Amino acid sequence: MPSVLVPLAQGCEELEAVTIIDLLRRAGIDVVTAGLDNRPVTASRGTLLIADTRLDDVLGRTFDMVVLPGGLPGADHLAADPRIIALLRSQHAAQRYIAAICAAPKVLAGAGLLDGRSATAYPGAVDPEAFPKVRLSDAPVVVDSLIVTSRGPGTAMDFALQLIELLLGRESRDQVERGLVRTL
């Protein structure tokens, strides 16, 4: 069973975080949520989220994918955390999946992981002048090799379903999507 780490920063976008966690778990993926600190996470709209564990407690584990929810100031907290940057670079060096949605692709851009790649993000989150090597798209979800990016809360379900497809295949994605009563 694939394993996915979802770091939860104070001020993350709750719709994105919960959608990612929920859909991946529906697919049978081992999802571990990890707070950057030991406090409950107050998301961007005031929703309280309780992480499964602390980031420090899982840094030694190997995950098939690391997924960053967006939101502000959550994405800024992720970008400012040297543990997150080291984790992303290690994940990239090991040729394992990295995914980010909404404002979180700027964390990947800041770490240099989007240089020469196509990506999408919340409008204005990744400044093309600051990151001229990133090929920005307005597509809802962009997959470029082992890096997956998405636009925002409205694309969270498509993003999570794409992650399921990458980890488990189209049949698993379709099964989860049918259970959501979405039009295929």
UniProtKB/TrEMBL annotation:
<dbReference type="Pfam" id="PF01965">
    <property type="entry name" value="DJ-1_PfpI"/>
</dbReference>
<dbReference type="InterPro" id="IPR050325">
    <property type="entry name" value="Prot/Nucl_acid_deglycase"/>
</dbReference>
<dbReference type="GO" id="GO:0005737">
    <property type="term" value="C:cytoplasm"/>
</dbReference>
<feature type="domain" description="DJ-1/PfpI">
    <location>
        <begin position="3"/>
        <end position="165"/>
    </location>
</feature>
<protein>
    <submittedName>
        <fullName>DJ-1 family protein</fullName>
    </submittedName>
</protein>
<dbReference type="InterPro" id="IPR006287">
    <property type="entry name" value="DJ-1"/>
</dbReference>
<dbReference type="InterPro" id="IPR029062">
    <property type="entry name" value="Class_I_gatase-like"/>
</dbReference>
<keyword id="KW-0677">Repeat</keyword>
<dbReference type="InterPro" id="IPR002818">
    <property type="entry name" value="DJ-1/PfpI"/>
</dbReference>
